[in-house]
Write a structure and sequence with these properties.
This protein is an alpha/beta fold. It contains ten helices and twelve strands. An eight-stranded parallel barrel has the order 1-4-5-6-7-10-11-12, surrounded by seven helices.
């Protein structure tokens, strides 16, 4: 069971949001400073989300390249604002090991197969789930696509790995949605879980239902001994 620390970016800061809400910033620290603390723990992989790119639909390749330099030999999985095949290949060229795509995959029924053909196992399909359906565009919009239909589409297109986020649990330290992950893992696809993961007990529970890895945000801050700085959105962001 792999633990993947999360680094979410807004402007030039690493942040944590509550339930993906840009107006509920729980933690903020300069990017370089926080990245160095995460790298010091020597994780096998780092999860980088450019929240600004996801919100604005504008890829910030230079920020990803900066993260890759800060990570050194530690591979990155990257998401946020990757809305085209050219954008995905640019992120990989900037130093990412694999890319997580959500919005770009669900608007066109042929998109999944196109991305799989081009990216292979460097593609991770994002299932960001709120109230049983997928959310897109930085979680600011909801689709009419249910979880089971999304998983079926991924199977048919040849996707090998899913990144599944229970949005209602994200940034809450409320524990993972084990029913959701168990349901998705039944597909036989590799599943990375995110949302509410707090501690080793949660990791064990996720492994028991079939997940290969879990992304940890607030829980990882606790492991670093960081106390949350309750704050509101900075106008710069």
């Amino acid at each position: 069971m792999q633990l993947i620390p999360a680094i979410d970016l807004l402007g030039d800061y690493a942040v944590r949001l509550e339930q993906g809400d840009y107006d509920r910033v729980l933690f903020r620290q300069p990017l370089d400073e926080f990245f160095s603390r995460v790298v010091a723990t020597q994780p096998a992989l780092i999860h980088v989300v450019d929240l600004q790119g996801a919100r604005d639909g504008a890829l910030r390749t230079e920020v990803i390249a900066r993260c890759a330099r800060l990570a050194g030999t530690i591979p990155l999985q990257v998401s946020g604002g990757i809305r085209s095949l050219d954008a995905a290949t640019s992120v990989l060229a900037a130093g990412a090991h694999r890319v997580i795509l959500g919005t770009a995959l669900w608007g066109d029924t042929d998109a999944l197969a196109t991305y799989v053909d081009a990216l292979g196992d460097q593609l991770v399909a994002a299932l960001d789930v709120r109230d049983g359906v997928l959310a897109v565009r930085g979680w600011l919009s909801s689709t009419h696509l249910g979880v089971d239909d999304a998983v079926r589409r991924c199977q048919e297109a040849g996707v090998t790995r899913l990144h599944v986020t229970a949005i209602a649990r994200d940034g809450t330290m409320g524990g993972p949605d084990l029913e959701l992950y168990s349901r998705v893992c039944a597909s036989g696809l590799k599943v990375v879980a995110a949302g509410g993961v707090r501690n080793d007990a949660d990791l064990a529970d996720l492994e028991a239902v079939g997940c290969e890895a879990a992304v940890m945000g607030l829980g990882f801050l606790a492991r670093l001994g960081i106390t949350l700085e309750n704050s509101v959105s900075d106008p710069q962001l």
